[in-house]
Design goal:
Number of helices: 11
CATH topology of the largest domain: Alpha-Beta Plaits
Radius of gyration: 31 Å
Distance between the termini: 38 Å
Number of domains: 2
CATH class of the largest domain: Alpha Beta
Number of strands: 7
Largest sheet: 5 strands, mixed
Helix content: 55-70%
Length: about 350
């Protein structure tokens, strides 16, 4: 399993962007920072994106993120190593089993030949004895092979569990427990193609003035708000739909079999729900109110997925630029001067 699947050209472009971004922000482009910002620009790991958003030039944060990235890569490499060892062990055991079968087959064939050629009782007795011993050895070998295969089955089961955990972690946002960008890409790959109908919609939601929440109440409260909204969105969508964290305080919902009008109505329902929410703060009698802006788009048959999602992102931008706490669809966005 390759951790980085980008082509040479794509990797070169990313490396150039890393250097450009770090220099622009005044971050020293040393190996640790370079790797962290490379991962940040890939936008695959929400944990990395979020931590850099909070602290762009902090040595401790860079080391923490570097260790996080290396640990993730090492975990996948360890699983790769286990798979390779398991396969090699099975091949080795099967080769040994094949050699044993060949050896005992030759013994039995020779015994049958001797019995056919001679009628000496003593010789026949010796041949039968050799056959019995050979069969016993073959039986013992079969038992050993069965035991080994049971061990292999146990190892495969354990490996399967590790892979399931690893897959879940790789596709889950660690803060909110919902899908991350990688999970979104997989959902799109499985559910959307150039032949999809025009009833596949996208909603991108952004919490209004989220930085103000962090500044006034602290990042712990900010994290609680993110987890609360993630749970609310999970409960609101249908079973066939996808909800994930798009990065920072943004969430994305992908809605198969949902028309533009139904997606807009659903987004408006979510907006009102959040607007009417009072989140009780822990260790306090205070409650926190917040709103969200939402952008909506619907897939156009044959277009690129990036265009489809970018239109929802553009509609979100218009919603924020025209007052926040609004739902804007792609049609309104295209007719607004604030459209990107």
């Amino acid at each position: 399993m390759l951790h980085y699947r980008e082509s040479f050209a794509e990797s070169k472009l990313l490396a150039e962007k890393v250097l450009e971004e770090t220099v622009r922000r005044g971050v020293c482009p040393n190996p640790i920072n370079f790797m962290v910002w490379y991962e940040y620009l890939l936008k695959r790991d929400a944990f990395v994106v979020d931590r850099i958003t909070v602290a762009t030039d902090d040595e401790q944060t860079a080391i923490e993120l570097f260790n996080h990235i290396v640990s993730r890569i090492c975990m996948m490499s360890e699983i790769d190593g286990l798979v390779l060892k398991l396969v090699n062990d099975i091949i080795s055991d099967m080769n040994g089993w094949e050699s044993t079968l060949e050896r005992h087959t030759l013994i039995l064939e020779q015994a049958l030949s001797d019995l056919s050629a001679k009628s000496d009782v003593n010789l026949a007795s010796m041949v039968v004895k050799n056959v019995v011993e050979s069969i016993k050895d073959l039986t013992d070998s079969a038992k050993g092979m069965r035991s080994k295969m049971e061990e292999v089955r146990s190892e495969v089961d354990n490996l399967k569990k590790q892979l399931e955990v690893s897959h879940k972690e790789a596709h889950t946002d660690p803060l909110t427990g919902i899908g991350n960008r990688r999970a979104m890409d997989k959902f799109v790959e499985d559910n959307l193609d150039e032949n999809s109908s025009d009833s596949f919609s996208c909603i991108i939601l952004d919490i209004d003035f989220f930085k103000r929440i962090n500044d006034q109440h602290g990042h712990m409260v900010g994290d609680s708000v993110l987890r609360f909204i993630a749970k609310l969105l999970q409960q609101a969508i249908k079973g066939q739909d996808f909800v994930g964290r798009f990065g920072g305080e943004e969430f994305i919902m992908l809605l198969p079999q949902t028309s533009a009008s139904n997606a807009y109505a659903f987004a408006e329902k979510l907006r009102k729900l959040l607007q009417d929410t009072n989140l009780k703060l822990r260790n306090s009698h205070d409650t926190l109110k917040f709103t969200a802006s939402l952008g909506v788009s619907t897939y156009r048959k044959g277009e690129k997925v990036t265009d489809f999602i970018n239109r929802a992102d553009n509609a979100l931008y218009v919603a924020k630029e025209t007052g926040r706490n609004r739902v804007v669809d792609e049609i309104e966005a295209s007719n607004t001067k604030y459209s990107q």
